[in-house]
Design brief:
The protein is α/β, with parallel strands linked by helices. It is built from twelve helices and six strands. A six-stranded mixed beta sheet has the order 1-6-5-4-2-3, with helices on both faces. The longest helix has 19 residues, at about 1-20.
């Protein structure tokens, strides 16, 4: 029965990829996701968290991934944490990470998105984008070293225009620098949307805009399913290992020690 589910979901991932016509260069696996497979398949426990802005907080791609994981591993007991908060950026994320995510217990798989909010809400420069995203990633790697991370780039109209002009939006360029440095897997939904619109296989209205409609969220979720099946195919991990941490951060002022303090503890 378990083999049946594995085959079923693998075939589904292939068929969905064909329907949406994904460019596999926008589905980027760095390293492996063996630690999560070990927990989901062998230990029958899954602890999954999502962090981002309103795109994560809303009823969008997140519940689709949650539902898929429960069907993909029907005997696994999952706990899910929605740490999406509207209009928050990676800086806020780095400071609330322990309170909202890591402080709630061990974590197996962590989904994160802040490319849009670092752009339109925070208006971050390159250094601020690095400090926020590296602050989050390095904290996770330090405090929960077996956790696996997947970062997703969503898109707004201004960023879409840049991508269609073959330019990389500032927030995406900075975040990707962090993801490459720390070996974090990535879904470049933004570039996929831009490419499909240019090929006239998708419209911005069909996708749904900055806060995607049902079709856009399904498209995003299918890209994640594709990545996960690619990572788990033919893998049989016997244990979990710690993810490596670069000796030196990209920016020594990144918020990897970020945390909240009670007002009474603040000194002026």
């Amino acid at each position: 029965m378990f083999l049946y589910f594995q085959v079923f979901f693998f075939l589904c991932s292939i068929s969905f990829s064909m329907v949406f016509g994904f460019d596999q260069t926008n589905i980027i696996l760095r390293g492996n996701l063996d630690n999560s497979l070990f927990m989901f398949e062998k230990k029958k426990i899954g602890r999954v968290a999502f962090m981002g802005g309103s795109i994560t907080e809303m009823n969008g791609y997140r519940p689709l991934i949650m539902d898929w994981l429960e069907k993909r591993f029907p005997k696994t007991k999952f706990s899910f944490n929605n740490a999406g908060i509207s209009s928050t950026c990676s800086t806020t994320g780095a400071f609330r990470l322990n309170r909202d995510v890591l402080g709630k217990g061990p974590l197996d798989l962590f989904f994160i998105e802040f490319a849009v909010n670092d752009n339109q809400d925070a208006n971050h420069n390159h250094a601020a984008c690095i400090r926020g995203m590296e602050g989050i990633i390095r904290q996770v790697r330090t405090k929960s070293p077996k956790t696996e991370i997947i970062s997703t780039f969503f898109v707004n109209p201004g960023m879409l225009k840049k991508l269609q002009a073959r330019e990389t939006p500032l927030t995406m360029r900075a975040h990707q620098e962090v993801l490459i440095k720390y070996g974090v897997s990535q879904i470049h939904l933004a570039r996929e949307v831009a490419d499909q619109i240019q090929k006239k296989s998708l419209t911005w209205s069909q996708f749904g805009g900055t806060h995607p409609k049902k079709f856009g969220n399904q498209m995003c979720a299918e890209m994640h399913f594709n990545l996960l099946e690619q990572a788990w195919k033919d893998r049989n991990p016997r244990s979990r290992i710690n993810k490596s941490i670069p000796t030196e951060p990209i920016n020594p002022f990144s918020y990897f020690n970020g945390h909240f303090l009670s007002p009474e503890k603040i000194q002026t």
